[in-house]
Design brief:
This is D-3-phosphoglycerate dehydrogenase. The protein has 25 helices and 24 strands. It is of the alpha/beta class. Bound molecules: nicotinamide-adenine-dinucleotide (NAD) and (2R)-2-hydroxypentanedioic acid. The site of (2R)-2-hydroxypentanedioic acid has 9 residues, from loops.
Length: 630
């Protein structure tokens, strides 16, 4: 017969996100300034009591004296506390139902407000042990019932002892008085609960730090609302990604580690072992070697457009999904390109540099309007085509070349070869993607084909242009003005020196890969990419991923979802269904999509089944990854 388990749960900052007396303070002190002052003092006294610095009775006495609360305030307090139950408690109602008889709330708070709140999750009122207020004739709260054992030193332990509970006792709480129960040898295990507050002195003493009730249930093999505790999902965020992304991951309950710059291959290999989600921009190279070290990696987010820095083929073979932000910074790049075209046409770099040296060079020589000039766009994708529209609206004549048939927007004219475009354009601007075949797409021969005095821009990828040839053509005067935002090697952070043959060349605008670096774009990206990754973790949805077959999935309701990624070989779907049939499992919905490398099958099933089935799914030959969601 399994040993009976009893669960002792603290109330303030554990069952609820807040300390009830803090909330009471905001209700019963009307003057804002006095309220703030009192609140600060109350919080200080709470911490002193919770960390074991002063006796809890003293902390309680001093807080109540400051509050000057009345019985009439309690209804509003209870109303507000109803909305403050800890998230992981709320979604684990099934645990509270199943262990109704074995769950106890033992708190140094007050029964008057604890009972109505914990009853919401089905805790029995007779299993709540807490203090009670004392009142005067006008209903003012004067103190607390001194005969209650909870007012004594080690009161919680004494209370539990008096219950004579057979079996194992587990305590979950955030305060020193919760640890004391275990310290006095009355409980078997103490779990420091950190979903709402983290107290080092309490965490140090815990058998296990539990950032949520899900984690507690997971480590104790108890029924949980989630298939996997979110706090076990580690996110590594590199390259100065916008804070909004970090916040979104934290809100989900993930553990987030942030590094401001990029990491070299060996460093990344070291740090990626326990990482489930990797977030990068354009600098970090995610190589096959990195991926070999990433046994837990589920998803990579490229917080940019380009994904050429990621070994996509290996990611796919390993069942690692990749997302990017294909449109979030398009407008920013287009605006920079346009601004640079205007500045270069007027020779503003030279003029500005000279004036900084005190040289007044007021002349129109070589300065041109962009109206009526021929703009040649190489790569007519999201950026190229948007630039085409804006450039036309400024009166430019637009030509474009793309290796794929593209619909010309407005009056833009298609060129059928790169040579044709190079020969016709007054300004050449590069907006191709970073595929390896595009290395040195523009070199000596291509510069040769351009007009004398051409303006040249590269805001796509560094390796697309042969820099030696570019330098020679700027020095010779063939290129009259040039703007470069991307380089074959880019510093990994703002501390590293930028070395390039382009430094110091005339009428050459150099920018540190900031085409997409506007606050608007970075914020958009930081919203878009995490939302895709979180959706993939929570539902299996792969819509708009770079390398997975794209599946948009219905919400999971009263079902478990089996996610299976496998090599794209014949017969896997049949094998999955054979396993399910052998276990007599009812399929509620099934979705399959494949690409050249992998198949992606999602199966929603009834929730009661023999859990050994999931092991059998993993053992199907050619399985890459398999997980269950609920
Ligand atoms: N500087 C920055 O900060 C910044 C910001 C965003 C994007 N980018 C880069 O800009 C480039 C374009 O981005 P996008 O969103 O428009 O990409 P996109 O994929 O929408 O468009 C790229 C286009 O280039 C075409 N193409 C590829 N190779 C070609 C070739 N050899 N000749 C002609 N056409 C070719 C493709 O067919 C496609 O139409 C990418 O390299 C991206 O990484 C840079
Ligand atoms: O922000 C970055 O690092 C890259 C920006 C840009 O090159 C992109 O691919 O979106």
């Amino acid at each position: 017969m399994p040993t009976q388990k009893h669960f002792i749960i603290d109330f303030d900052s554990t069952f609820t996100k807040v300390e009830a007396l803090d909330v009471l303070c905001t209700i019963c002190i009307p003057d804002p300034e006095q309220r703030q002052q009192t609140l600060r003092e109350i919080q200080r006294l709470t911490d002193l009591g919770m960390e074991g610095e002063i006796p809890l009775t003293e902390s309680l006495e001093r807080r109540l004296a400051l509050l000057k609360a009345n019985r009439s305030h309690l209804a509003e307090l209870i109303r507000q506390l109803h909305g403050q139950v800890s998230e992981s408690f709320k979604h684990n109602k099934a645990f509270f139902d199943r262990f109704r008889d074995d769950i106890y709330i033992i708190s140094n708070g007050f029964k008057e407000f604890i009972v109505p709140i914990v009853q919401e999750l089905g805790v029995k009122p007779e299993n709540v042990f807490a203090n009670s207020f004392t009142y005067d004739a006008d209903g003012n709260i004067t103190g607390f019932d001194r005969d209650n054992v909870l007012t004594q030193n080690q009161g919680k332990g004494k209370q539990i002892q008096s219950l004579n509970l057979p079996g194992e006792i587990y305590v979950i709480g955030d305060g020193y008085t919760d640890y004391e129960i275990k310290g006095a040898g009355i409980a078997d295990k103490f779990y420091a609960f950190t979903e709402n507050v983290e107290r080092e002195s309490v965490m140090d003493k815990a058998d296990h730090v539990t950032p949520s009730l899900d984690e507690f249930l997971y480590v104790n093999n108890l029924p949980s609302a989630l298939s996997y505790p979110k706090n076990r999902i580690k996110v590594l965020v590199l390259e100065g990604i916008h804070d909004k992304a970090i916040q979104l991951f934290k809100n989900e309950g993930y553990q987030v580690e942030v590094v401001s710059g990029a990491l070299e291959e060996d460093e990344l290999c070291e740090r990626i072992h326990n990482v489930s989600i990797l977030c990068i921009r354009s600098k970090t190279q995610v190589t096959a070697k990195v991926l070999e070290n990433a046994s837990r990696l589920m998803a990579i987010g490229a917080f940019c457009i380009g994904t050429n820095q990621i070994d996509l083929a290996t990611c796919t073979e390993r069942g690692i999904i990749v997302f990017n932000a294909p449109y979030s910074n398009t407008r920013s790049v287009v605006e920079l390109a346009l601004g640079e075209i205007l500045l270069l046409s007027r020779g503003i770099v030279e003029k500005s540099n000279k004036l900084h040296q005190g040289i007044w060079d007021k002349s129109a020589a070589g300065a041109r309007e962009i109206r009526g000039k021929k703009l040649g766009i190489i790569g007519y994708g999201s950026i190229g085509s948007q630039l085409s529209v804006l450039a036309e609206s400024l009166g430019m004549e637009v030509y474009f070349y793309d290796i794929v048939d593209k619909l010309a927007l407005g009056n833009a004219k298609v060129c059928y070869s790169l040579s044709e475009l190079l020969a016709i354009s007054d300004i050449v601007t590069l907006h191709v993607d970073g595929r390896t075949e595009n290395k040195h797409l523009i070199g000596a021969q291509e510069f040769e084909k351009m007009k004398l005095g051409v303006l040249f821009l590269n805001l796509s990828r560094g390796h697309v242009v042969d820099l030696e040839a570019l330098t020679a053509n700027i020095q010779s005067g063939k290129i009259k003005g040039c703007a470069v935002d991307v380089f074959p090697y880019e510093p990994k952070n703002n501390e590293e020196l930028f070395q390039s043959e382009l430094r110091g060349l005339p009428n050459t605008l150099l920018t540190p890969h900031i085409g997409g670096s506007t606050e608007e774009a970075q914020e958009n990206i930081a919203q878009y990419v995490p939302s895709k990754m979180i959706d993939y973790i929570n539902t299996g949805g792969s819509y708009n991923s770079v390398n997975f077959p794209n599946l948009q999935l219905p919400e999971l309701r009263n079902a478990h979802r089996l996610i299976h990624v496998h090599r794209n070989v014949p017969g896997i779907l049949a094998k999955i269904n054979n396993v399910l049939a052998a276990h007599n499992i009812n399929i509620l919905g099934q979705y399959l999509k494949t690409n050249e490398t992998i198949g992606y099958v999602i199966t929603d099933v009834d929730t009661s089944y023999d859990r050994t089935m999931t092991r059998e799914l993993k053992q199907i030959p050619d399985t890459i990854k398999s997980r269950t969601l609920y």
